[in-house]
Amino acid sequence: MRQNTATPAHALPVIAFIGGGNMASAIIGGLIDQGQQASQIEVLEPGAEAREALRSTHGVEPLPEAGAALERAQVVVWAVKPQVFRDAAAQAGAHVRQALHLSVAAGIRCDSIVRWLGCERVARAMPNTPALVRKGMSALYARPAVSAAERQSVEAIMACTGEFLWVENEKQLDAVTALSGSGPAYVFYFLEAMVRAGVGMGLSEPQAYRLAVATFAGAAELARRSDEPPAVLRQRVTSKGGTTHAALQALEDAGVGASFEAAMHAAERRAHALGDAFGA
Ligand SMILES: NC(=O)C1=CN([C@@H]2O[C@H](COP(=O)(O)OP(=O)(O)OC[C@H]3O[C@@H](n4cnc5c(N)ncnc54)[C@H](O)[C@@H]3O)[C@@H](O)[C@H]2O)C=CC1
Ligand SMILES: O=C(O)[C@@H]1CCC=N1
């Protein structure tokens, strides 16, 4: 498992994005922060509003439909929804046959992409939205036909958005999707609940929000820097007969831990089902 060997910006290839929504915009922002010229980025985005947002935020000139401009891309990042990937491949595929393909779509497996594009050099990344603030976490997978140099190009692109790790087995990407891909939503869900409870106990919303966000960030940083497992860190907060014990007991009584695990399994099953349903 190799992590974060960021490649200098001058090593970044010309990159085309198919789909210019949230995830593409996050990656493009990271690339530009790392010194990639906007002129070295092509984006195919059918939505006029999304094109305008890309233009004003990143200074790129998105294309409304597939065309010859895509042909200069050495790497093509597929950032469309799984449901439209096949159509997008049919529309843009002929212009990007020679490129290395990197998909960020949940669930859609490499075999489908190879079939749609007629290209063997296909990799996948599963990023997450903290990429927007360069604190993303991505897992990467590449088919054997992707060379070591091409794997480095994939790393260079995703390192612009935060951290990464490689998985050796494509099926693990469904688990990654359920854990870190969807994970920011779980954090926001708990954050919302903590703020609601704080307000219910008499704090103002800004006070509760600030306390909750700082607690998530601080606990995550403590876990990152600590050599000890989270169970030990949790026990350190939990005085015998104290407040934390009362809260954790209420969580256990309500089956929150088990429900949380079940929720993540549901996300993994959905990732697999998306691959089955829209990868045909
Ligand atoms: N949002 C997230 O947290 C994450 C999303 N992903 C994956 O990233 C992919 C994109 O997700 P988002 O950026 O959130 O969606 P989005 O809806 O913001 O962006 C998708 C864009 O694709 C465009 N599009 C639709 N049809 C197209 C076509 N035929 N050709 C080119 N572009 C087309 C849409 O106009 C839209 O702007 C999805 O497959 C998702 O599974 C992966 C990790 C995290
Ligand atoms: O919800 C989704 O399907 C995408 C993939 C991971 C995060 N968002």
From TrEMBL:
Start and end residues of each Pyrroline-5-carboxylate reductase dimerisation domain: 170-273
Catalytic reaction(s) noted: L-proline + NAD(+) = (S)-1-pyrroline-5-carboxylate + NADH + 2 H(+); L-proline + NADP(+) = (S)-1-pyrroline-5-carboxylate + NADPH + 2 H(+)
Main location: cytoplasm
Broadest EC class assigned to this enzyme: oxidoreductase
Its EC number(s): 1.5.1.2
Main function: Catalyzes the reduction of 1-pyrroline-5-carboxylate (PCA) to L-proline.
Assigned protein family: Belongs to the pyrroline-5-carboxylate reductase family.
Subcellular location: Cytoplasm
Transmembrane segments: 12-32
Residue ranges annotated for the Pyrroline-5-carboxylate reductase catalytic N-terminal domain, each copy included: 15-106
GO molecular function annotations of the record: pyrroline-5-carboxylate reductase activity
Organism for this UniProt entry: Verminephrobacter aporrectodeae subsp. tuberculatae
Name of the coding gene: proC
InterPro entries, per the entry: 6-PGluconate_DH-like_C_sf, NAD(P)-bd_dom_sf, P5C_Rdtase_cat_N, P5CR-like_CS, P5CR_dimer, Pyrroline-COOH_reductase
SUPFAM superfamilies on file: 6-phosphogluconate dehydrogenase C-terminal domain-like, NAD(P)-binding Rossmann-fold domains
Protein name, per record: Pyrroline-5-carboxylate reductase
